[in-house]
Amino acid sequence: MKRIYFLLLSLFSIFNANSRYVEFSVNMNNEVASVNGIHVTGDFQIAAGFTGGNWNPASTVLTQIGALGIYSVVVNIPAKKKYEYKYVNGDQFYESEYVPDESRVGYLFNDNRWFYLDSLQNDTLKLPCLIFSTNAPLSKKLLRFRVGISGIILNSAGVHVAGTFNNFNTVENYMYSFDGKIFEYITYLDTLTTSTQFRYINGNNTAQYETVPAACNVQSNREAIFSKDTVMPLVCLGSCVACPSGISKYELSNNIKVFPNPFKQECQVFFGDNNIRDLVIIDSQGRVVRKYAQIKHHLIINSENMSIGIYYITTSRTEKIKLIIIQ
Question: Are 150 and 246 in contact (CB under 8 A)?
Answer without folding.
Answer: yes
